[in-house]
Amino acid sequence: MIRGSIVAIATPFKEGKIDEHCLRELVKFQITNGTNGIVPCGTTGESPTLTHDEHHRVIELCIETAEGKVPIIAGTGSNSTAEAVSLTQHAAKAGATAALIVSPYYNKPTQEGLFRHFKTIADSSPIPIILYNIAGRTGVNIETPTVVRLANACKNIIGVKEASGSLEQMKSVKESCPKGFLLLSGDDALTLPVLKMGGSGVISVAANIIPQDIVRIITAFEGGKHDEAEAAFNKTLPLVKSLFLETNPIPVKTAMGMLGMCSGDVRLPLCEMSEENQKKLKQALTDYGLIKLERVS
């Protein structure tokens, strides 16, 4: 079942290559801490700079390591429909639970083009598809009528990761799509508002470093403990803000490096975080309690 706290897992690098041992450890860390699902090769996983072989390998490693304990929702989107079909079919063959398909970037297709793109992928996919709407990255918004049209035309399109930033649009999607169609927040800062409108969870960047706390927000809310959920959510907001001081995944990988979880390296054209923002990030991690204050003797 796809719901709850789903981590958009970072891809760790070591000397320019995928750190396979570290990736396995990160997957185990997420499962141990109660995460409900894992998305490899998304935005946070730096999919645009992975070769096809690397892309395949990251997905395979996550599936192997998870051992069926949590769903693996493989990021297999592309601005080439044929490439997205190929990546999705590989993920299905490898044993992925579902595929997360970002809207095509740079091409700026029309709504009709978006419909045909997603329908072509869905028609060729043996696993469920979740749409990924993030106009800030792609330059095109999947309008609600297009989402509704896809949900009705393709039974294996089961939901949408909404990162448009528009709660009004998310509400419209929830109200207009068939019953059971998943609405997943694509923005940690909107997780609770999305849950309040009937959302099923979040695909989270912050869960890379605070998985238990993201789980706690959703568990408390779904258990009717709304005050507890609100308090847990509000606690995360300053840290979440620091994770977007620069382009994702630069800050979260920097944080993971500071916490000794992985090297923190990113691939060009992404680069290391500025010193000023690193200080702000470290302060946020310290304030949250993830980094202990150094004692002055």
Task: Report on this structure.
This protein is an alpha/beta fold and 297 residues long. It has a single domain (4-236), classed as TIM Barrel (Alpha-Beta Barrel). It is built from 12 helices and 10 strands. The strands form 2 sheets. It has an 8-stranded parallel β-sheet. α1 (20-32) packs parallel to α2, α2 (52-66) runs parallel beside α3 and α4 runs parallel beside α6 (144-153). It is globular and about 55 Å long.
Name the features:
297 residues; alpha/beta; TIM Barrel; 8-stranded parallel β-sheet; two-stranded antiparallel sheet; 12 helices
| CATH level 1 class label | Alpha Beta
Strand order of the largest sheet: 4-1-10-9-8-7-6-5
Strand content: 5-15%
Give the mean pLDDT.
96
Radius of gyration equals 18 Å
At the fold tier of CATH, the topology name is: TIM Barrel
Structural class: alpha/beta
CATH superfamily: Aldolase class I
Which H/E pattern describes the elements? EEEHEHEHEHEHHEHEHEHHHH
The poorly predicted ranges are: none
Instruction: Give the overall form.
Output: globular
Q: What would CATH call the architecture?
A: Alpha-Beta Barrel
In whole angstroms, the N-to-C terminal distance is 52 Å
Helix content: 40-55%
Query: Any idea how many domains?
Result: 1
Query: How would you sum up the major sheet?
Result: 8 strands, parallel
